């Protein structure tokens, strides 16, 4: 995918070769990490924080 020069073709390549294959596994592990890591150490907004404002 990285060797593709055209931006649109590269985006389509990432969609089919990366996102569709790996996203669910990555998402599962990141969701678990969000529950384990204390808020003071997790500097990015957590998924639940993006859905529901405090």
Helical percent range? 55-70%
Quick one: biggest sheet? none
- Number of helical regions: 2
Low-confidence stretches: none
Distance between the termini: 39 Å
Say what oligomer this is.
single chain
Mean pLDDT: 87
What best-fitting shape do the alpha-carbon axes yield?
A: elongated
Give the beta-strand count: 0
Structural class: mainly alpha
The proportion of strand residues reads under 5%
Radius of gyration: 15 Å
- Reading the helices and strands in chain order gives HH
Give your account of this protein's structure:
This protein has a domain of 32 residues. The protein contains two helices and no strands. The N and C termini lie far apart (39 Å).
Question: In a nutshell, what does this entry contain?
Answer:
The protein has 54 residues and is mainly α. It has helices at residues 7-36, 47-51.
Indicate the topology.
Blueprint: H1 7-36, H2 47-51
Question: Keywords for this structure?
Answer:
single chain; 54 residues; mainly alpha; 65% helix; elongated
């Amino acid at each position: 995918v990285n060797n593709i020069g055209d931006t649109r073709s590269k985006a389509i390549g990432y969609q089919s070769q990366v996102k569709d294959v790996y996203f669910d596994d990555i998402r599962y592990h990141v969701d678990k990490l969000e529950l384990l890591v204390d808020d003071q150490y997790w500097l990015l907004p957590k998924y639940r924080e993006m859905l529901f404002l405090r």
